[in-house]
Structure formats: structure tokens, C-alpha cells
Amino acid sequence: MIDSEKFHEWKVWVSQNKLTTIGSVWLGLMATNLAYQFTRPVPLQLKLIHSRVYSQFVTVAAVGCIGLAEALDPSMKRKKEQDF
């Protein structure tokens, strides 16, 4: 089980590296969805379209979760001095 200090460090890292986190989530979901789609008997174009749509949906949900977490936990926001 993860202790609270490591979980807080993870939350701060995700908050400070949003683009890396979102890109990794999207890429992982795209690969997983493509693997699933290739088990179905549909044309290649539909496999690509379905994989992209599912990945984008979950990625938008992840962005919302990060925003919600920052709104609820002010310690996740970067300090003004770190932005410069």
C-alpha cells in the first residue's frame, strides 16, 4: 500500500508534468485500444477511428480529474516563483 507521503509526491509530480502525464495516458490508451480493436472483425479505418475516440474520451476525463484535484488541493498548484 502507498503511504500518504509518496502519494502526495506523485500528485505533485502529475500536477507539475501535466503534458507528459496526459501524453502518456493517451499513448497507452491508444495502444491498448488498437490491440483490442484488432481482435474485432471491422475494417482498419473503423479500428483507428474507434481507438482514437475512446482514447480522447478517457484523456479528456483525465484532464478533468487533474483540474478537479488541483481545485480541491491547493498544495498541488505550483508556486509563483517556480513559474519564472
TrEMBL record:
Q: Which UniProt keywords apply?
A: Membrane, Transmembrane, Transmembrane helix
PANTHER family noted in UniProt: RESPIRATORY SUPERCOMPLEX FACTOR 2, MITOCHONDRIAL
Where in or outside the cell it occurs: the entry states: Mitochondrion
Q: Where are the transmembrane segments?
A: 21-38, 53-72
Q: Which InterPro entries match?
A: Hypoxia_induced_domain, Rcf2
This protein's source sits in the domain of life called Eukaryota
Please tell me the species this chain comes from. Chloropicon roscoffensis
Name the major location. mitochondrion
**Taking every annotated instance into account, which residue ranges of this chain make up the domain HIG1?**
1-81
Protein name as annotated: HIG1 domain-containing protein
